């Protein structure tokens, strides 16, 4: 992902730029070199280039906007002999610009003080679509609450603020899984409230920490669906995150030893917005079944959501189920007697992804080795 240039608009592409989708008229015959553009100041137009033999006088080919309109107050442009031939180009994820320096300059001093962590640590492919959200009054109120709880800048530690995860890890999900690469979203609830457990990915724990019971059940289910899966002795799921699995908790922080302590403070509204962004753009940079096709490249084509338990299912209730695959079941917690084991979600997800994006669109659920070993 390219670094921000403080003086330029940048695009924060998640992958190497995919092929540009060809421009096409909305109606009427094919138009090669005609484009009409509406601007805030008025209307500008370029005129189709004529063949060399069309006129012996080249000056006749140089028509200005006023020539076409006949008056500066004209309200319509008519292209003689053709129906409407306005060329449209669909907005793609990687062509949405974001000027980080301009955003920072737009903030009040209080906002700069409160949003420094987001500016510094949130993945830029996400920040460019969430930067207006984090300026909203509810999010500023959330940040004031977190500051009172001791959550400050990126160098804060759980020991100093008694809140998990460490500030630098609150948005780790956004860095391991850029927006355009999301294939699957696993919705969690709270970060783990115990020491050294939470590191910004739902259900995951750093290497060296005992595998939580819910994750043990997740591993057991994968083993039943993919017998070749070797159940690891660790619970670090960074390998999945880098493979396009966004592990998103509904609340992104929790007070040490107090589950649910940061609920109803604003995190739910923020992560609902994250899910809305995925609803629109999820799958934008995933491969196409036909590598020679550029149809819909760069636009949201759908992803898989796994929602386990009523809390997670509420978060995905408004999704477009014609666009996405939404898989629901009981929570993997061993306190739930049945309903998770045997749900078949991991294979169902890959079957859907392969049909939509080809073999390269699947998640390698069995690979948790290299990335987790290095973490």
From TrEMBL:
It catalyses: Hydrolyzes single-stranded DNA or mismatched double-stranded DNA and polynucleotides, releasing free uracil. It is found in: Mitochondrion; Nucleus. GO terms for molecular function: uracil DNA N-glycosylase activity. Its main location: mitochondrion. The active site is at 190 (proton acceptor). Keywords: DNA damage, DNA repair, Hydrolase, Mitochondrion, Nucleus. Belongs to the uracil-DNA glycosylase (UDG) superfamily. UNG family. Excises uracil residues from the DNA which can arise as a result of misincorporation of dUMP residues by DNA polymerase or due to deamination of cytosine. This is Uracil-DNA glycosylase.
